[in-house]
Amino acid sequence: MKKAAFALLTLLTLSACSTSVPIRNFDANPVPQMASGQHDLESIKTNILKACMKLGWTCRSNAEGQILGKLDIRKHQLRVDITFNEQEYSIDYKDSINLDYNGEKIHRQYINWVTNLMRNIDAELAYK
Q: Does domain 21-127 have CATH number 3.30.310.80?
């Protein structure tokens, strides 16, 4: 009985220490409304770029309604596509280095980094 309990505890501990999570994209996030009206595409782009810079992301506009974001932290690199219109924006995984991406799972920090970026984008858009 003690061996079974120890084995179960060990298994639970190891599964809690997993460094990989299922990959996901963050699609259709609503653009926060301003009290003075709606954002135009240029103001949305400007505020997304501000949010990126505040967090150390390197971002550049590829085309109208599209930004390529890159985050370098130590030996890790993450690249995402940020697409947007007047109503919503999406952040989609593009590529990574040293984040153990295998087609289904990725390093758990991916979720944290993108969620933090979304919070900052929302704050920039709501503030203006």
A: yes
